[in-house]
Amino acid sequence: xxxxxxxxxxxxxxxxxxxxxxxxxxxxxxxxxxxxxxxxxxxxxxxxxxxxxxxxxxxxxxxxxxxxxxxxxxxxxxxxxxxxxxxxxxxxxxxxxxxxxxxxxxxxxxxxxxxxxxxxxxxxxxxxxxxxxxxxxxxxxxxxxxxxxxxxxxxxxxxxxxxxxxxxxxxxxxxxxxxxxxxxxxxxxxxxxxxxxxxxxxxxxxxxxxxxxxxxxxxxxxxxxxxxxxxxxxxxxxxxxxxxxxxxxxxxxxxxxxxxxxxxx
Length: 265
Prior knowledge:
Elements: H1 2-17, E1 51-53, E2 67-78, E3 84-96, E4 102-111, E5 114-115, E6 121-126, E7 129-134, E8 137-142, E9 163-173, E10 176-182, E11 195-206, E12 212-221, E13 238-248
Antiparallel strand pairs: 1-9, 2-3, 2-13, 3-4, 4-5, 4-6, 6-7, 7-8, 9-10, 10-11, 11-12, 12-13
């Protein structure tokens, strides 16, 4: 039942957060729907707008055709014995189109620190081969698929709305110069009715291009909102953390990795 529960949770979250990313490369510009800011000199070159709209088109633009995303959902609560319990869902996806199509994906589900092999998958495509790991065995077959850019990296922007304020300037995240914006309860979309408490939230916007680099927010949710009835005490709230990072690479650079069990095959 745990496996069925997490599959429902995973599919639900993928539906909520999947967001198609356009393929055009953004320049440095004042995004539509946002309040312009002086970008004339010194360390303020490319400074993000003081107020940023969550539907700003630059946030959802894909900066290059080569990218790696990491998404993590963490649910922390109390089990029916009164002990603390944590469920973690972790998803990594890498994709490149040049010099050849290649991709890598890994899904890991952990129940109170123990990885569930039935809900954890790893695989990818590289050098004309399809790699997949199942029950600690690497399976290799010819890549016979016709690939199209996936164009979605479980982008959480779809679940956010309204405007956010810039609160910190010049923050380097994964080697990218960004500005930090503060999220508030009013920015939460369909989660709002299930949210008992909004604890914290930050969004990091790239200075060059204005695209999303990282986002994290922490909510206290009503138990009934989540399909985790077997793991948590229904009388206690659940702390939900959403973490997301997106890293772009120079087109033509090969960065796709293989599952560890498939290296050398």
